[in-house]
Amino acid sequence: MYAGIDIGSRTIGLVVISGDQIILSRIEDTGFEPLDTAKKLLVGNYDRVVATGYGRHAARTDYACQVVTEIKAHATGAAHIFPGVRTVLDIGGQDTKVILLDEGGSVIDFQMNDRCSAGTGKFLEVMAAALGYTGVAEFGESALAGSGGIKISNMCTVFAESEAVSLIHRGVPRADIALALHASVVERTAGMAQRVGFSSPLVFTGGVANNRCIVSLLAEKLGLNVLVPPQPQLVGALGAALSAK
What we know:
By secondary structure, the chain is α/β, with parallel strands linked by helices. The chain has two domains: 1-82 and 231-245, ATPase, nucleotide binding domain (Nucleotidyltransferase, domain 5); 84-228, ATPase, nucleotide binding domain (Nucleotidyltransferase, domain 5, 2-Layer Sandwich). It is built from nine helices and ten strands.
């Protein structure tokens, strides 16, 4: 049995494979002690454990046999689920990555935004709270019902929050503001994809891929069908497990 564990900023994913079958998959919140959370997920005996994500190097000193980068892990996992994929877009809690693959599934280029939380899952969490939504899921569903015509001009999390609050005080419907914030994330993400030279098929991974509004706006902006795995948050862990095998 081979285990892949993706220790991210917001969640930790575990995938265990045996032969060609996934026999276990789990997701937990990262919490304040990510290494302990990961160790609890890894209860059992494995032939090899490979770690990826933010906490991969700390895991290597403790229980992982080796580590792989998030770029490699997401590329490997996405290519396994969707053979022939040429672009992988991963939006997680703290960063955004656009990864280009060749016909064989090997990474040929990538671009990564990790300097601030603009356009990431954390950005959406902060905006959802600012608008009084119970969570990102409700935030995304509300945005689908919004109407266009409003533009958020600043992608800095602090200033975008201030801009959103100002729109609320002006009486702009909450769903319209939600849509504008989602559109700003897509605008930034599409710009990254265009700069790196994306091509179809494109697979969307990471927690933000669960947001139906982001997926819909992204498909419209890029002019292609966006493929979303059944469990997009586990693609990195799957790639790590396949690397272990």
